[in-house]
Amino acid sequence: MLNYRFRNSPQRFCDGLTRRQMLRLGSTGLFAGLSLPQLLRADEQDKLPGKAKACIFLFLEGGPPHQDTFDPKPDAPAEIRGPFQTVPTSVPGTFFTEHCRETAKIAHKFTVIRSHSHNDNGHSTGYFYLMTGRRPNFPDGEHPIPTNELYPSLGSIVGRELGARGSVPRYINMPHPMSAGGPGFYGAEYAPFVIEADPSQPDFEVKDLGQVEGLSAERSSLRQKLLAGLERDRPRQGRAAAMSTYYTKAYDLITSPEARKAFAIQSEPREVREAYGMTQVGQCALLGRRMVEAGCRFVGIDAPGWDVHFNCFPSLQGDLIPPADRAFAALINDLEQRGLLDSTLVVMMGEMGRTPRVNAEAGRDHWSMAQSACFAGGGTKPGLIIGATDKQAAAPVADPIGVSDILRTIHTLLGIDSDKEYPDPLGRPLPIVNGGRVISELIA
Questions:
Q1: Strands 344-349 and 371-376
Q2: How many domains does the chain have?
Q3: Which residues span the domain enclosing 42?
Q4: What is the value of pTM for the model shown?
Q5: Are residues 174 and 58 in the same domain?
């Protein structure tokens, strides 16, 4: 069984919940106790035509302020626009804030949706809603672990529907589990392969991917032959036979030179790593590109720290916006140069935006009624601004785009039938996406 050590220091949301508590693994088996055989289980699925073959999802956890990034309001009063200036982008007439300089240079390569809106103002509940498309059955501040025991998440759905490709797992989270990113009633075999380590650190490695200490390759091979002999003499049936196949797949991954090569981010040229930025989010984005290149279907990158209630602008200016800006721009450029952008959908967003008005503590509070989401590659149209907010960045001026619209569009770009149904634990048919419309103006 694989076990990845948690290296990140605890961080608190505004409700006092620590990141370690948020990621504590319960007894449901959705994350905890997940073995590689379970992870690799499931047959190839038939697929609908779709340009995107994989998705990299950069989740800016805590709620990035849209008016301080991709939806500036330079003509608004200071208490609304904040202290940041604007910069022109590569798309004439479009402006971002001054700390989005790298994405401004490539604005013609991706599209910003400025009218994403919903009415869930909680962190864990908003996260749950965005990852599953279902309303949470718990209030924010009461955090079941994991938060989606029932409904499968976006990554689990994509992994199940698109199936395996290459030697790496089909669904990966980094640098820790996405709190609402589990498989729900799909079962543990559709849970993410979690890399709980920071790829920006010099000693980064994916634990337990190599040989067990003290166990030589020859001895490991002999064990596999012994197991094969036992199974030949005493054939397994039903679930036992299936699990035998999954253990074989797990062994193949652990011993796969291709998998070890894909995880070896240290082999990247120094200039490539520096282009992404030697930050956690930057190197996770680079590792995400390597995972997709090796065959992963969905990479979920959880980038925390955006819950900016107090004295937020120094943190936004120094620690939050520039690393995400650089990582996203480098990822788009790198995928394009490698001929992978057309087949890889890249999404960057959070669970909410922030309040139009700066509060008395020089921060911005929760505000889900307006937020920005960035889409690139994978069959999307580049260089657009879809939707708009009012002069205070408080609400879309028309036609808000909801969570179900976002999810239905992602699935459509990946060639997944959003109306396909699976029976829930009570036997009721549950569609992959509940309602919503495809954002047709986004699709090329």
A1: antiparallel
A2: 2
A3: 19-209+258-442
A4: 0.84
A5: yes
For residues 80 and 389, the answer to whether their CB atoms sit within 8 Å is no
CA angle 426–428–431, rounded 5-degree value: 130
Whether 116 and 177 share a structural domain? yes
Dist. CA 178–CA 159, nearest whole Å: 15
Extract the tokens encoding 64.
Answer: 């990035």
57, containing H or E segment: strand 54-60
Q: How far apart are CA 47 and CA 38, in angstroms?
A: 22
Same domain, 204 and 216: no
pLDDT digits (tens, 9 = 90+) for 206-256: 876 655 556 555 665 565 556 566 556 666 554 454 344 445 545 655 667
Give the per-residue pLDDT at 419. Answer: 97
Per DSSP, the residues of 123-143 read: HHHHHHHHHHSS--SS-TT--
Q: Is residue 5 part of a domain?
A: no
DSSP for 325-382, written as a single string? HHHHHHHHHHHHHTT-TTTEEEEEE-S-EE-SS--TTS---EETTSEEEEEESTTBPP
Question: What is the rounded distance in angstroms from the CA atom of residue 393 to the CA atom of residue 349?
Answer: 16
Q: What percent of the chain has pLDDT over 90?
A: 67
